[in-house]
TrEMBL record:
<feature type="transmembrane region" description="Helical">
    <location>
        <begin position="319"/>
        <end position="343"/>
    </location>
</feature>
<comment type="similarity">
    <text>Belongs to the binding-protein-dependent transport system permease family. HisMQ subfamily.</text>
</comment>
<dbReference type="InterPro" id="IPR000515">
    <property type="entry name" value="MetI-like"/>
</dbReference>
<protein>
    <submittedName>
        <fullName>Amino acid ABC transporter permease</fullName>
    </submittedName>
</protein>
<keyword id="KW-0732">Signal</keyword>
<keyword id="KW-0029">Amino-acid transport</keyword>
<keyword id="KW-1133">Transmembrane helix</keyword>
<feature type="signal peptide">
    <location>
        <begin position="1"/>
        <end position="27"/>
    </location>
</feature>
<feature type="transmembrane region" description="Helical">
    <location>
        <begin position="355"/>
        <end position="378"/>
    </location>
</feature>
<feature type="domain" description="ABC transmembrane type-1">
    <location>
        <begin position="319"/>
        <end position="507"/>
    </location>
</feature>
<keyword id="KW-0472">Membrane</keyword>
<feature type="transmembrane region" description="Helical">
    <location>
        <begin position="485"/>
        <end position="504"/>
    </location>
</feature>
<dbReference type="InterPro" id="IPR035906">
    <property type="entry name" value="MetI-like_sf"/>
</dbReference>
<keyword id="KW-1003">Cell membrane</keyword>
<dbReference type="InterPro" id="IPR010065">
    <property type="entry name" value="AA_ABC_transptr_permease_3TM"/>
</dbReference>
<dbReference type="InterPro" id="IPR001638">
    <property type="entry name" value="Solute-binding_3/MltF_N"/>
</dbReference>
<keyword id="KW-0813">Transport</keyword>
Length: 523
């Protein structure tokens, strides 16, 4: 779904910035002044923030499997080189595929580079640089398959590809009934290996890096795909500056060298750039990646132990992020839920109506929509929140509605005579609520509140759509990198269990303690 959402985001973004597509500086022979550039998201005059989805994004921008905390990829190397040529420091910003263009619209970063195809639909939504990479689609088969080496030969066979790509459009034009579209490359290749697909049609760089020894590339190149760097439509100056640098990288052979290191220099790129020189650059990045994957993905006990030990820092970091977001969100949910419950149970009519309206609206809309609205929608009203703050706020506001109903049920479960007795003892209405009613109601809802916190821990996975890397996102990255869904899943599941268990124990202790206090009060 994320590539479909990305296409929708592009369409909406095109409506947001109808400033028109001006001619790039490289087409006019001009070179924009770097000092005068508008660079959204920059922290100083040397910062150049750029975004990509670094999760399972080989060979574009991805986490180095040898050092998971380090980013790498041919687009990463390209952006570091472009930044240096512009006299700036390139700063990578992680964002999910479907959030890249919305993040561009709210000035979180200056540009996006993520293998975005320069289709007419995409060009209508954003400004593009000149293509930095031109490639083709290729057919991938299992080694035991034969004959399926052309588009016509694929008719009647189940063929997989990635959603919202040129390859998907080609397949839908030829044989729409047998096309299977995927969000992630790893799932696509896994299904081919497992026999759920007869073939794959996909961009050649992806085919090259995801193909294993039991798969093969067949047939001639198909079609033409061009990747461009995306900019907001209202910032042609920065686009022109990057275009100028790209032109220099093509003419002086630097782009050739970067691509050759990743084994991605092709006849198509030679024809496009006019660089027909024979490369002497060794594909060191390609070789390092293959060797690392062979070592890390091995089935021997030593390889598995090494792999899982290397996962621990990432899973620990994801667990801390999950715990931090969830705990703060639950504090907000408890406090706001109590206020809403008191308003509905004891407030005046307008307050009861407003609290009820809030509860029904929040419970009646998906949490994911609320997360996206708070992070990407509120900036339109001048309220810009960090990803962490937006995650805490969205989860807290959502769960406050559910906590409010729990607390209201707890308040209503307290006998009316308790309030009357408190008033008779000369307490004010607020004192009676604070000292008599709420403590008894709170004890009733403690078990439910504990269950809600466990649910919130799991729902915190949704904040990954606003660039936060928590446990579930860590699982997606590691499992898709190493094709290891079982071992990685067990480790992440154990992390969730370890994070949640202490709170379950604390809740039981609090429940027993409150039970003893209430029992003494009755005597």
């Amino acid at each position: 779904m994320k590539r479909v959402m990305f296409a929708l985001a592009l369409a909406l973004f095109g409506l947001w910035g109808m400033a028109g597509l001006s001619a790039p500086a490289w087409a006019e022979g001009g070179t924009p002044a770097v000092a005068s550039l508008r660079v959204p998201g920059a922290t100083d005059d040397r910062d150049l923030p750029w975004a990509s989805d670094g999760e399972a994004n080989v060979p574009y921008v991805f986490h180095d499997p040898a050092h998971e905390g380090r980013m790498t990829g041919f687009e990463y190397d390209l952006m570091q080189t472009i930044s240096a040529r512009m006299g700036r420091h390139g700063r990578f910003v992680q964002n999910g595929w479907d959030g890249l263009i919305p993040g561009l619209s709210r000035d979180l970063y200056a540009l996006v580079i993520d293998g975005i195809e320069m289709t007419p639909e995409h060009k209508a939504a954003v400004l593009f640089s000149r293509p930095y990479y031109v490639t083709v689609d290729r057919i991938v088969l299992r080694n035991d398959e034969k004959g399926l080496d052309t588009l016509d030969a694929l008719k009647g066979h189940v063929v997989g590809t990635i959603k919202s790509t040129a390859a998907e459009r080609l397949l839908l034009d030829h044989d729409p009934a047998n096309v299977r579209s995927y969000d992630e490359e790893t799932n696509l290749f896994s299904d081919l290996k497992n026999g759920r697909l007869d073939a794959i049609l996909i961009d050649e760089p992806i085919a090259l890096y995801y193909r294993s020894d039991d798969l093969k590339l067949v047939g001639p190149p198909i079609g033409r795909v061009a990747y461009g760097i995306a900019f907001p439509k209202n910032n042609p100056g920065l686009r022109d500056a990057v275009d100028s640098v790209l032109g220099d990288l093509m003419s002086d052979g630097t782009l050739h060298q970067i691509l050759a290191r990743w084994n991605l220099w092709t006849p198509q790129m030679a024809d496009y750039t006019g660089d027909q020189t024979l490369s002497t650059v060794q594909p060191t990045a390609w070789v390092d990646y293959r060797q690392t994957m062979e070592r890390m993905s091995g089935s021997s006990v030593q390889a598995m132990v090494h792999r899982y030990v290397s996962f621990l820092p990432l899973i620990g970091s994801g667990a801390l992020m999950t715990l931090g977001v969830s705990a703060l969100a639950m504090v907000l949910a408890v406090a706001m839920g109590l206020v809403l419950a008191l308003a509905r149970a004891y407030g005046v009519a307008p307050l009861r109506w407003l609290a009820g309206l809030y509860v029904e609206i929040v419970r009646g809309t998906p949490l994911l929509i609320q997360v996206l609205f708070i992070f990407y929608g509120l900036p339109a009203f001048g309220l810009r929140l960090s990803p962490f703050a937006a995650g805490v706020l969205s989860l807290g506001l959502n769960y406050a509605a559910y906590e409010a109903e729990n607390y209201r049920a707890g308040l209503l479960s307290v006998p009316r005579g308790q309030m009357e007795a408190a008033i008779a003892l000369n307490m004010t209405h607020m004192q009676a609520l604070r000292l008599v009613i709420v403590p008894q109601a709170f004890r009733t809802v403690v078990p439910v509140m504990t269950n809600d916190f466990i649910a919130l821990l799991k729902d915190s996975s949704l904040v990954s759509v606003i660039t936060l890397t928590e446990l579930s996102q860590t699982y997606i990255r590691l499992s898709s990198t190493y094709y290891d869904y079982i071992g990685t899943g067990l480790m992440v599941g154990l992390a969730y269990l370890l994070v949640g268990l202490p709170f379950v124990r604390l809740a039981r202790m609090a429940e027993k303690r409150m039970g003893r206090v209430v029992a003494k009060g009755h005597h």
